Amino acid sequence: MDNSNEALRTNSRLTQFIIWFLFIAAGFSVGVRLGTRRAMNHGLGVDDKLIIGSLVIYLGQCIAISVAVSADVPISNNSNEGSNSFMKGQYASVPLLILVLTLVKWSNSAFIRQLSPKQSYRKSVLVLSTIVGIWLVSATVAGLFQCSLPTPWDITDSSRCINRLSWWTFTVVINVITDIGLVVLYFSIIAKLQLSRTRKASIIMAFSTRLIVVGIALGQLATFLSSKEPMEAVASSLRLPLVLNQAVLSSSVITACVPYMKPFMQSLQTGIHRINNTSAFEDELMHLPRQPLSSHSNDTPLEYQGRLSRTRQIFKG
């Protein structure tokens, strides 16, 4: 029995270490992001404030999940007190987890709005942000009322709970789809930047790191679905689904900060400046009064279009 308890305490300490290590890594990445903003003489934007908010909520989530882990609950022969402590901590952490992911997605969406002034991208961002908001409300409400009152955290009796596998599958799948949507928007904007192929490739790689979150989330879902008993999904020897949840949070925050590193920010600013200038120039051309060709003009329509095209190229250069 003593050996079993000692192994349990060792697993608990290891899990605690992983939880807080992942949080510190995320906090460091946010610090680097804000430091880069300051070094480049930029004030805090909406996207930065959202990422700071996500880190604060993430801290609360880590505290809640640490309380759950410290309960030291084995898979079999659970004490009622230990089981309740574990389930309460895990129950409290889930809404915070979803809120962190939502704030990070909204931060990414705000950044996309800064990258391109085009109305089509702004509409796409609005649609994606709305979907994320609906996901936040629906997944959180389902999580808060997953089991009957007065003990909605007690998942030991599945007859009084919703289908938790379906609920968590919905939560993860929408999380993955919206992340992929963000990456697609990033790529479509970057493809139009006036940059060399090398710089463009490096920026694409920076934004591609978001796909790491997708991979971890799918791995977490696969682990959760493979669990046969309710308590097994939240109280395994190393609590693998729980640890993977923390990995999703940490990687989500970190990958949202990678594009803000100074080399990527400088390249983005250069490309965006060129695109904005070109767009403004073309808008001016569109609003110029159209002069009909007269007998005094030496330009044919083809020659006029050729001169206009060369002027645009010079402006882009």
TrEMBL record:
Keyword Transmembrane helix: yes
Transmembrane segments: 17-36, 48-71, 91-112, 124-145, 165-189, 201-222, 242-261
Key word Transmembrane present: yes
Keywords: Membrane, Transmembrane, Transmembrane helix
Domain of life, source organism: Eukaryota
Span of domain Rhodopsin: 32-266
Protein name as it appears in the record: Rhodopsin domain-containing protein
PANTHER family linked to this entry: INTEGRAL MEMBRANE PROTEIN
Pfam families: Fung_rhodopsin
